[in-house]
Amino acid sequence: MGREAGRSARRAAVVGLLLGLGAGCGGAEPAVRDGAGAAASPSSARPATPAVPAVPGIDAEAIELRTDAAVGGQVHVRITNTGAEPFTVTSLALRSPGFEPLPAGEEVAGYAPGRTIDLPAPYGDPVCDADAEPATVELTVARPDGTTERLTAPLAAEALTRVHGKRCAALALAGVVDVAVTGLRADEAGVSGSLTLERRSGTEPVRVVRLDRSVLVEPTASGLPLDLGGDERSAATPVSFEPASCDPHVLAETKQPFRFPVGVEVGEREPVVVDLPLDEPARAQLTEMVDRICTGRR
Does a structural domain hold residue 185? Predict the structure, then answer.
């Protein structure tokens, strides 16, 4: 009962956020989709997905690695051979009521008894009127005798639930306001421009309360908190970017050099944390800035 109660609570929280962010909006809520991708109401009920029985000899868990966050659109499935016979996984597909299904991807990974290997598992667009759990993983498994099986194994999916909640919150926020960096230009210290808010719908006040650094670059927005009043269509404040480190190891190893978490409040609700959107020209300018300044410091 405790596990089911936890799932219900998570679903209620996501639905509450979607309903809140959609309040007062004149159009459809883009974060809420049915299984075919059509707009749907957050309150529309979906039947509970029955639990899938365990597969003897196979344990599976969804995990989110740093590379997953950098690449986007995927998690990894940690598969362990808990049986006495080896097997080889030749294809894998993630299945969750909270994400639209994608075709199985080809994988070749051999599992001796006791061995654990993490395999990448892309997920589709989020379905925000459904829970991410219970989730499963569909596997094609080759046995030592040459036989092949198609198996559906239960998936421990707390990490997938976290990803689902973040994706749905970000989509709901995007239906209310666009957060952007505009007018970037190089200067002696780094790169500077404007952090802007453009209202898409609704009349609730919006506030940017934080802008965090990446491993490599430090942003500074002098006018935080940045407020967008209920009767305002746009707001902006100066923002600048400077290298936070020129350490060669940091430059070589960082997977997310330009990932800047932004905390945004809508109305009286808790902040939603999203990544600061940066288009390719902006990323190119930041890359040039790091090269220019770090080369000069060496």
Answer: yes
Q: Are 233 and 199 in contact (CB under 8 A)?
A: yes
Question: Among 138, 165, 192, where does a domain finish?
Answer: 165
Residues ≥6 apart with Cβ < 8 Å to 65: 75, 76, 118
At 120, the amino acid letter reads: P
Q: Are residues 110 and 180 in the same domain?
A: no
What are the two backbone dihedrals, phi and then psi, of residue 25, each rounded to the nearest 5 degrees?
-80, 140
Answer whether 188's CB lies under 8 Å from 213's CB: no
- Residue 183 inside a domain? The answer is yes
Which residues neighbour 253 within 8 Å (Cβ) at sequence distance 6 or greater?
none
Here the CATH number for the domain that contains residue 253 is: 2.60.40
Instruction: Give, for all 298 residues of the chain, the pLDDT tens digit.
Output: 443 444 444 444 434 444 344 333 333 333 333 333 333 333 334 455 567 899 999 999 999 998 898 888 999 999 999 999 999 999 999 999 999 999 999 999 999 999 999 999 999 999 999 999 999 999 999 999 999 999 999 999 999 999 999 999 999 999 999 999 999 999 989 999 999 999 999 999 999 999 999 999 999 998 999 999 999 999 999 999 999 999 988 888 888 899 999 999 999 988 999 999 999 999 999 999 999 999 876 5
Q: Which two tokens stand for residue 267?
A: 């109305």
Number of domains in the chain: 2
**Domain encompassing residue 77:** 45-165
- The Cα–Cα gap between 171 and 184 comes to 25
Domain boundary among 165, 198, 224: 165
Question: Does 220 share its domain with 123?
Answer: no
Please report, for the domain that includes residue 86, its CATH number: 2.60.40.10
Q: pTM above 0.90?
A: no
Which CA distances in Å does 60 have to 40, 89, 162, 239? Answer: 31, 12, 17, 44
